[in-house]
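Per your request, structure below.
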């Protein structure tokens, strides 16, 4: 009877061993290659995303530097760097030219107003008897000869 139980136990162990699958070296290589390929693919995606993020940050800093140096060369305020956006240097130069033209015309108008001389409050701008340098009140108080 004991012999019979040993035989059954041995047969059960052999059945369990037979149920385990054995792989050939080619199959193992194929499995490893698939896993490596999927790992590389996910690593490449992560690397590419990180690379693009760093590249965009670098381009942003480079544009800020170009803008600030262009403003400095033209003698314009650095505060404009937060307002102006551009795609390339040609676009930047055209925008700065337009801004500079606007500022120059405004400054010319300010200079024109300064040359008017005495301007009474409420008087229309332009030439009048006060802008010629003569003051009627002063003329009235001048001693007559």
């Amino acid at each position: 009877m004991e012999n019979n139980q040993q035989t059954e136990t041995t047969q059960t162990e052999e059945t369990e061993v037979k149920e385990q699958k054995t792989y050939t070296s080619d199959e193992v290589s194929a499995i490893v290659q698939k896993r490596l390929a999927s790992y590389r693919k996910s690593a490449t995606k992560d690397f590419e995303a990180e690379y693009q993020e760093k590249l965009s940050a670098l381009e942003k800093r480079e544009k800020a530097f170009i803008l600030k140096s262009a403003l400095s060369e033209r003698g314009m305020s650095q505060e404009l760097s937060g307002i102006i956006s551009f795609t390339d240097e040609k676009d930047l130069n055209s925008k700065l030219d337009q801004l500079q033209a606007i500022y120059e015309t405004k400054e010319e108008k300010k200079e024109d107003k300064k040359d008017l001389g005495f301007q009474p409050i409420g008087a229309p701008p332009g030439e009048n008897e006060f802008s010629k340098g003569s003051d009627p009140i002063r003329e009235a108080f001048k001693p007559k000869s």
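The helical segments are 2-19, 25-74, 89-114, 136-141.

Regards,
D.
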